[in-house]
């Protein structure tokens, strides 16, 4: 059996080495290190893949979120509703811009933002909703877009974990996660589903004016050289990273398929387990999910494969996995509303039943494009031994 790793970047890299080397060397030869032709080409290719009008690359996913909010003109004191169960970057940028983060509970099966909790949190100050497509599964975008329309709110999708996932609307039409809201943000951090070899990120929108505004913001607020119309930032994707991403993008669907296959195999081991809840794929009637994993619509691209251990043995399992040399992750061990930086008097503990429970129950198993059957079988055997045994 190969060494177990949480992600296998080297294994994935080896398969595109030749093309990647050529592409990166071309950047080095050209000396167009920043905003070179590779960045422009990547923009076009990603826009085409996602079916969105504008892709604006930037330095990382956190910047992508921050710049999206700046681009929409959100003002200090505006309330922004997001999930209590996500990586801190999502709420960090809201706070940094002196907007007011309003954290709400998530759904117990998909781990995504709970629609009724959003509805309850809307006030006259609410300006935006930030759904996070957590672990590779999109949030309920039909309901979120309806709420946004009804209350005149912006929707900013945090798509750092779900690039390539499809969303099927109630009318059966499909769109990629990240390009449904007014603006979407993603990360190309190396371990993400589409990762570069350093930091990288991008912003997506179909709105021409917003795209124009954002293109200025990422470049010091310049729309004309040395004319600074708005306060901007310096946030660029460098050309070497764009070259790597161009080599990987044509493989993204295959990468996501490999993740889905691994997930399906894990889940097959756990279907009869009494104390293990496997990841659910849930979109609408076209999604043939049941308890297993949808075969038809790519609604979940498994950035993580996350189980809920419901009999209190999560920590025991974590220890055992570690002693067996099997990496694992606890995403996320502390809900954001309990973090010192983001605690607020407005929160009522009873409103976070699900996130509180999830932080005690979740465990993520190794998930990447190079997982082999013997690894999956071995990891599943250990999980079942500890939790069910
Ligand atoms: C990774 C991630 C980010 C931040 O991306 P960086 O490129 O690391 O800045 C934001 N939100 C979520 C949900 C993430 O997983």
Describe this structure in words.
Helix 2 (17-30) runs antiparallel to helix 9 and helix 10 packs parallel to helix 13. The model has no long low-confidence stretch (mean pLDDT 94). The protein contains 13 helices and 14 strands. The strands form 4 sheets. A 7-stranded mixed β-sheet has the order 1-9-8-5-4-2-3, with helices on both faces. It has a 3-stranded antiparallel β-sheet with strand order 12-13-14. Strands 6-7 form a two-stranded antiparallel ribbon. It has helices at residues 9-14, 17-30, 37-50, 61-71, 89-96, 115-121, 141-151, 208-217, 239-248, 252-270, 314-323, 353-361, 373-387, and strands spanning 54-58, 79-83, 100-104, 126-130, 154-158, 166-168, 174-176, 183-187, 201-205, 222-224, 227-228, 276-277, 305-309, 362-365. The longest helix has 19 residues, at 252-270. It folds into 2 domains: 9-250, Aspartate Aminotransferase, domain 2; 252-388, Alpha-Beta Complex (Aspartate Aminotransferase, domain 1). Helix content is 37%, strand content 15%. The chain has 389 residues and is of the alpha/beta class. Bound molecules: pyridoxal-5'-phosphate (PLP). Pyridoxal-5'-phosphate binds at residues 60-62, 86-87, 89-90, 132, 158, 160-161, 187, 189, 199, 201.
Number of strands: 14
CATH homology group of the largest domain: Type I PLP-dependent aspartate aminotransferase-like (Major domain)
Q: Pick out the low-confidence regions.
A: none
The distinct bound ligands, ions and cofactors come out as: pyridoxal-5'-phosphate
């Amino acid at each position: 059996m190969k060494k177990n790793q949480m992600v296998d970047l080297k294994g994935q890299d080896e398969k595109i080495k030749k093309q990647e080397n050529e592409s990166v060397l071309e950047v080095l030869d050209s000396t167009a290190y920043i905003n070179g032709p590779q960045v422009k080409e990547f923009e076009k290719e990603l826009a085409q893949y996602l079916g969105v009008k504008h892709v604006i690359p930037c330095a990382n996913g956190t910047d992508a979120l921050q710049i999206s909010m700046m681009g929409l003109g959100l003002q200090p004191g505006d309330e922004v509703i997001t999930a209590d169960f996500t990586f801190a970057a999502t709420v960090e940028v809201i706070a940094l811009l002196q907007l007011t983060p309003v954290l709400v509970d998530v759904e117990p099966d998909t781990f995504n933002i709970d629609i009724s909790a959003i509805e309850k949190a809307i006030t006259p100050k609410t300006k935006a909703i930030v759904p996070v497509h957590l672990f590779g599964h999109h949030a309920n975008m039909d309901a979120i877009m309806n709420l946004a329309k009804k209350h005149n709110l912006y929707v900013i999708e945090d798509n750092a974990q779900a690039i390539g996932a499809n969303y099927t609307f109630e009318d059966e039409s499909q769109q990629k996660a990240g390009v449904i809201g007014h603006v979407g943000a993603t990360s190309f951090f190396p371990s993400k589903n589409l990762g570069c070899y350093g930091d990288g990120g991008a912003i997506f929108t179909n709105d021409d004016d917003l795209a124009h505004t954002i293109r200025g913001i990422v470049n010091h607020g310049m729309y004309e050289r040395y004319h600074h119309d708005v306060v901007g930032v310096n946030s660029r994707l460098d050309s070497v990273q764009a070259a790597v991403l161009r080599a990987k993008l044509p493989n993204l669907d295959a990468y996501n398929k490999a993740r889905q296959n691994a997930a399906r195999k894990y889940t097959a081991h756990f279907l009869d387990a009494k104390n293990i809840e496997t990841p659910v794929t849930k979109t609408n009637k076209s999604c043939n999910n049941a308890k297993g994993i949808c075969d038809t619509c790519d609604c979940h691209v498994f950035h993580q494969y996350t189980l809920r251990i419901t009999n209190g043995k999560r920590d025991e399992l974590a220890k055992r996995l570690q002693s067996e040399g099997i990496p694992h992750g606890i995403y996320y061990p502390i809900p954001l509303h309990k973090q010192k930086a983001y605690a607020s008097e407005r929160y009522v503990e009873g409103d976070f039943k699900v996130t509180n429970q999830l932080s005690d129950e979740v465990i993520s198993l190794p998930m990447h494009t190079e997982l082999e059957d013997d690894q999956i079988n071995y990891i599943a055997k250990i999980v079942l031994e500890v939790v069910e045994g």
